TrEMBL record:
PROSITE patterns: FE2OG_OXY
InterPro entries, per database record: DIOX_N (IPR026992), IPNS-like_FE2OG_OXY (IPR044861), IPNS-like_sf (IPR027443), Oxoglu/Fe-dep_dioxygenase_dom (IPR005123), Plant_2OG-oxidoreductases (IPR050295)
Cross-referenced Gene3D superfamilies: B-lactam Antibiotic, Isopenicillin N Synthase, Chain
GO molecular function: dioxygenase activity; L-ascorbic acid binding; metal ion binding
Segments crossing the lipid bilayer: none
Protein name (database record): Oxoglutarate/iron-dependent dioxygenase
Species in which this protein is naturally found: Parasponia andersonii
Keywords attached to this entry: Dioxygenase, Iron, Metal-binding, Oxidoreductase, Vitamin C
Family of the protein in this entry: Belongs to the iron/ascorbate-dependent oxidoreductase family.
Residue ranges annotated for the Fe2OG dioxygenase domain, each copy included: 192-292
Length: 343
């Protein structure tokens, strides 16, 4: 495996050439303070606080239309479990490279794996300032046996965490299905059959203005639920400008993915986002991606299209979409072209 950034970065005061992005895509001077104009919606999922369910649904749909991203509070996942998950995932990435590699080589199908930069390390021209641990999480009994056994509490804590966050994802998807007026349970079958955990780690970076943790992309998921902790780094591209998604204690960031954009025929927007680094602290995040099964067909839901709203996207098997997405490094324009009904 390529050398993990966390293994060599601490001794550097400048970036290797292959991590320096060109002027157009590098972040440049970074301001993490509250910029006052991001206004990314924060939605309280507790009906007792927030009027009633209809109002929560409206807020989610509006956020999905205008931003493609929002944060949720009073979401039902225990704060203690969120803290423990943050702690154990940080501990994982703090282990020596050799131990991390060993902990991620138990799965004969290599679905639990560790990589650096991106899945295209060997072919990409420039590298990203991140290491990633990825593994499936459902059904738990089937996959947990291949997860890291060190740190010793990893399986227990991340197992509990993913079960809780999966429930939260189902709840949010159920609210979205009501908001879109599609049938109840629309997302609960094959469209959410393949949830994946991704633990990203972005070490402190000597020249954060020149590097990227992850380039601009839209997740290839239905939705993604992100625990970002208290270190900023996630940015949303809103009306052509980058805005910080501010860390909010014990909130989750919810991202609309490209699959939901297609399914809703563009009514909900997949959020275009990226990750930047900073020079003082490492940042560790845990995402749960709700992915469809490989064989499912993704397409605009027929009840959401008619003569005035013709389908914008064609029907594609998820595995074909996914391999196109990965091999084109998530390039939004190419993905649009691939999905465009007229091509
Ligand atoms: C991703 C992603 C955000 C983050 O992994 O797709 O956007 O803050 N991660 O780590
Ligand atoms: Ni993403």
């Amino acid at each position: 495996m390529e050398k993990l950034v966390s293994g060599w970065s601490t001794s550097r005061t400048t970036l290797p050439e292959s991590y320096i992005f060109p002027l157009e895509t590098r972040p440049g001077e970074l301001h993490f303070g509250p910029d006052g104009n991001s206004n990314i919606p924060v939605i309280d999922l507790d009906e007792d606080h927030n009027h009633d369910q209809t109002s929560i649904i409206q807020q989610i749909i509006k956020a999905g239309q205008e931003y493609g991203i929002f944060q949720v509070v009073n979401h039902g996942v225990s704060e203690e479990l969120m803290d423990e998950t943050m702690k154990v995932t940080k501990e994982f990435h703090e282990m020596p490279d050799i131990d991390k590699a060993r902990e991620c080589s138990k799965d004969p199908k290599m679905r639990c794996r560790l990589y650096t930069s991106s899945e295209n390390y060997s072919t990409e021209q420039l590298h990203y300032w991140r290491d990633a641990l990825v593994h499936p999480c459902h059904p738990l009994e089937e996959h947990m046996q291949f997860w890291p056994e060190n740190p010793t509490q990893y399986r227990e804590i991340v197992g509990k965490y993913t079960e809780e966050v999966r429930k939260l994802a189902s709840k949010i998807l159920e609210l979205i299905s009501q908001g879109l007026r599609v049938k109840p349970g629309y997302f609960s079958g094959e469209l959410s059959e393949n949830p994946i955990v991704l633990v990203n780690h972005y070490p402190a970076c000597p020249e954060p203005g020149l590097a990227l943790g992850i380039a601009k992309h839209c997740d290839p998921s239905v939705i993604t639920i992100l625990l970002q902790g208290d270190v900023p780094g996630l940015q949303l591209c809103k009306d052509g400008k980058w805005v910080v998604v501010p860390p909010l204690s014990h909130a989750f960031v919810v991202n609309i993915g490209y699959v939901l954009q297609v399914m809703s025929n563009g009514k909900l927007k997949g959020a275009e986002h990226r990750v930047v680094t900073n020079s003082s602290v490492a940042r560790t995040t845990t995402s749960l991606f709700i992915y469809p099964s490989n064989d499912s067909i993704i397409k605009p839901e027929t009840t959401l299209t008619d003569a005035c709203n013709p389908p914008l996207y064609r029907a594609v098997q998820y595995k074909d979409f996914r391999s196109y997405y990965i091999s084109n490094a998530a390039d939004a324009e190419k993905v649009h072209e691939f999905m465009d009904r007229h091509t």
